[in-house]
Amino acid sequence: MRHILSVLLENESGALARVVGLFAQRGYNIDSLTVAATEDPTISRLTLVTRGDDQVIEQITKQLHKLIEVVKLADLSESAHIERELMMVKVKTTAEQREEVKRCADIFRGQIIDITANTYTIQVVGTSDKLEAFIEALSGIQILETVRSGVSGISRGERTLSL
Amino acid sequence: MTSQNTQPELLSGGAMLIRALADEGVEYVYGYPGGAVLHIYDAMFQQHQVKHVLVRHEQAATHMADAYARASGKAGVVLVTSGPGATNAVTGIATAYMDSIPMVVICGQVMSHLIGDDAFQETDMLGISRPIVKHNMSVRRPEDIPYLVKKAFYIAQSGRPGPVVLDIPKDMTIPSQKFPYEYPKEIKLRSYNPNAKGHPGQIKKALTTLLAAKKPVLYAGGGVILGQASDELTLLARKLNLPVTNTLMGLGAYPASDPQFIGMLGMHGSYEANQVMHNADVIFAVGARFDDRVTNATKKFCPNATIIHIDIDPASISKTINAHIPIVGLVKPVLQEMLHQLEKNQGELDQDALGQWWQQIQQWREVHGGRYDSSASHLKPQAVIEAVHRHTKGDAYVTSDVGQHQMFAAQYYKFDKPNRWINSGGLGTMGFGLPAAMGVKLHYPDAEVVCVTGEGSIQMNIQELSTCKQYGLNVKIINLNNGYLGMVKQWQDMNYDSRYSSSYMDSLPDFVKLAEAYGHVGIRVTKAEELEPALERAFALKDKLVFLDIHVDPTEHVYPMQIPGGAMNEMFLSKTERT
Ligand SMILES: Cc1ncc(C[n+]2csc(CCOP(=O)(O)OP(=O)(O)O)c2C)c(N)n1
Ligand SMILES: [Mg+2]
């Protein structure tokens, strides 16, 4: 099962290394990881996508909790939540392909954010599934580069993860 | 304590560090100097509150600090230089980590501006130690030193204890740069709250379950000793008429001479302890972590048991074995609450069922009963431990190394008190025993301190005989010399048709002469009849370190031994018998 863990972390050097090290040490997977400071500069928020059965996820959350710098954490996938990932794709486009690429980007509510004589760079935002579907949809087009931000997530409704 | 007046004293980083240790109540620091910590050593030299013990290898410093912590319950302190000093400490840090031992390790580091340049004696000690510490920190500003020292002790000693590394770049301790010193009284961290007392509802549920049990067992581990809860545990076990087994780390948590004690459990546990566990209907686990050396195959583990598990570390609960009634909390307050609730509502024990259970246990006790072949012409290691127990009236601090001798010590030295049995259970570190004995002896000079070791293990830190001489650490070394890496040989006998691949200790030194060369007394024992007079003499020599080189049967194996891949109660009982 795929889980999205959201972690509030003391914004201190070494804290992130400890989180990442924990996953390596104990043989847990990281599918994606994003981290940045929050509105409170002493706190970072880290979103981590991992996989495992219930017992593994329980161990992961408990082990994360044990890290001294971890202030709070939640498994977003346990309740209603919104997840977003940003992707930028640079594709090679011949004159004939341009329309098709543009149409495809529109369908996925993507934006063309850079353009040269031979390339388009498209930005798409959505769930990881949607980003994968977009890549699928570009099947006839030569992809030069993709960059994904990793998943960020937040609970729906009034529920929050904050101090 | 030092700076209650209005003007805080001005101290250098090095002096602040030492003063903070003094304010923390630290009496001894174990360590070894080098370039990155010279300012600190100079500050140490200029005061008399904190004393320094110079070991001969940094690993020994960590084991000394660790054993002091195991015996006293307070964090031990280590001071080493950067680079090789720090890396030499790694085994000792990992040893403490695996057994949840509070320890503060202060490592020198190259100057801040050189970090990352592969400077002389630079290693990334924060990176190296990260997976084997409870926490680690580095000093960025000298004025933070008092706070960071306090924080290090707080983290090391609270909750589930563990080692904390404090990395100090050399420029943080420059003698000419002084700062106002104030030692914090208390530390609060928003991200760390270690004082769980246990959920009252869960505690009640646990009690109800125990009162209704027909075949209960209390399985108590090192957490009871770390949590200083032996008295509460003993009282509760008696009130509930529970058979009690201790893990290797928990020996002494419940008195071994008590009739309710059924021995150690697990790989080399007693026949009865492993049977009781396997057949129990309720397992009451206290400060124990269902380690693989206890459970044998987890799929076959105790099929009929409802499991109650008290632990301060939620990650230890349901990690390998699912707990039906988890209680997250410090062992002592949780047991106190159980005793309290028991007092309030006198529930009825099922005396009939318990009577039958004890009858069954009695029968199991008779099956193996810790027997060994005492008629053999060779001196048996088990007999040596029994004799040591007699000579020390069961009241010694016993440290051990790792191997067969360790298991014999665990099985045959009947520990009646907590904090007396000091061994590396989790990491299994050969070389632990001698420095551990030294750490205990330094703090308890009047106590009898015995190191049970093997000719393999003792050579991993034998240089410390020199430290013993310098500080008058008159421990008694019981070298169960079987001429083999015995535990390795036992596995080779059982699984590799006795092909002794590198398990034979060739070219052993003359340990008697070696002890003498270091200024100690050496006694060799090669025959059974020499044992008693040798022990007599050794323990009479109060102000001498005595190295007893005792030649024991090289063919002996440790039994019982769980059959790998089996259930708890599947065991070899001797070379020819199995369950
Ligand atoms: C540092 C270290 N290296 C290797 C081992 C693996 N090991 C476990 S027991 C053992 C043999 C110990 O021999 P000895 O000290 O003579 O004890 P004996 O088993 O003979 O009583 C070895 C090599 C270990 N536990 N620690
Ligand atoms: Mg040996």
TrEMBL record, chain A:
Q: Which GO CC terms are listed, alphabetically?
A: cytosol
Asked whether the keyword Amino-acid biosynthesis is assigned, the reply is yes
Which pathway does the protein contribute to?
Amino-acid biosynthesis; L-valine biosynthesis; L-valine from pyruvate: step 1/4; Amino-acid biosynthesis; L-isoleucine biosynthesis; L-isoleucine from 2-oxobutanoate: step 1/4
Keywords (alphabetical) are: Amino-acid biosynthesis, Branched-chain amino acid biosynthesis, Transferase
For biological process, the GO terms are:
isoleucine biosynthetic process; L-valine biosynthetic process
Catalytic reaction annotation = 2 pyruvate + H(+) = (2S)-2-acetolactate + CO2
Annotated EC = 2.2.1.6
Q: Kindly list the GO molecular function terms attached to this UniProt entry.
A: acetolactate synthase activity; acetolactate synthase regulator activity
* ACT domain sequence ranges: 4-78
**Pfam families xref list:** ACT_AHAS_ss, ALS_ss_C
Listed InterPro entries: Acetalactate_synth_ssu (IPR004789), Acetolactate_synth/TF_NikR_C (IPR027271), Acetolactate_synth_ssu_C (IPR019455), ACT-like_dom_sf (IPR045865), ACT_dom (IPR002912), AHAS_ACT (IPR039557), AHAS_small-like_ACT (IPR054480)
Broad enzyme group: transferase
Q: How does it assemble?
A: Dimer of large and small chains.
Q: Which family does it belong to?
A: Belongs to the acetolactate synthase small subunit family.
Query: What is the recorded name of this protein?
Result: Acetolactate synthase small subunit
Q: Which gene specifies this protein's sequence? A: ilvN
From TrEMBL, chain B:
Question: What EC class does the entry list?
Answer: transferase
Q: Where is the Thiamine pyrophosphate enzyme central domain?
A: 203-337
- Name any cofactors this protein relies on: Mg(2+); thiamine diphosphate
Q: How is the cofactor bound?
A: Binds 1 Mg(2+) ion per subunit. Binds 1 thiamine pyrophosphate per subunit.
Task: Enumerate the SUPFAM superfamilies for this protein.
Answer: DHS-like NAD/FAD-binding domain (SSF52467), Thiamin diphosphate-binding fold (THDP-binding) (SSF52518)
Task: Indicate the segments forming the Thiamine pyrophosphate enzyme N-terminal TPP-binding domain, all copies.
Answer: 13-125
Q: What is this enzyme's EC?
A: 2.2.1.6
* An example Gene Ontology molecular-function term: acetolactate synthase activity
Q: Which pathway, per its entry?
A: Amino-acid biosynthesis; L-valine biosynthesis; L-valine from pyruvate: step 1/4; Amino-acid biosynthesis; L-isoleucine biosynthesis; L-isoleucine from 2-oxobutanoate: step 1/4
Which cellular component appears as one GO term in the record? acetolactate synthase complex
Which CDD domains does its entry note?
A: TPP_AHAS, TPP_PYR_POX_like
Q: Which GO terms describe its biological process?
A: isoleucine biosynthetic process; L-valine biosynthetic process
Q: Which Gene3D superfamilies match?
A: 3.40.50.970, TPP-binding domain
Q: Which reaction does it catalyse?
A: 2 pyruvate + H(+) = (2S)-2-acetolactate + CO2
- Which keywords belong to this entry? Amino-acid biosynthesis, Branched-chain amino acid biosynthesis, FAD, Flavoprotein, Magnesium, Metal-binding, Thiamine pyrophosphate, Transferase
Q: Which residues form the Thiamine pyrophosphate enzyme TPP-binding domain?
A: 401-550
- List, alphabetically, the PANTHER family matched: ACETOLACTATE SYNTHASE CATALYTIC SUBUNIT, MITOCHONDRIAL (PTHR18968:SF13), THIAMINE PYROPHOSPHATE ENZYMES (PTHR18968)
Query: Family per UniProt?
Result: Belongs to the TPP enzyme family.
* NCBIfam families, A to Z: acolac_lg (TIGR00118), PRK06466.1 (NF005058)
Name the record gives this protein: Acetolactate synthase
Organism of origin is Rheinheimera tangshanensis
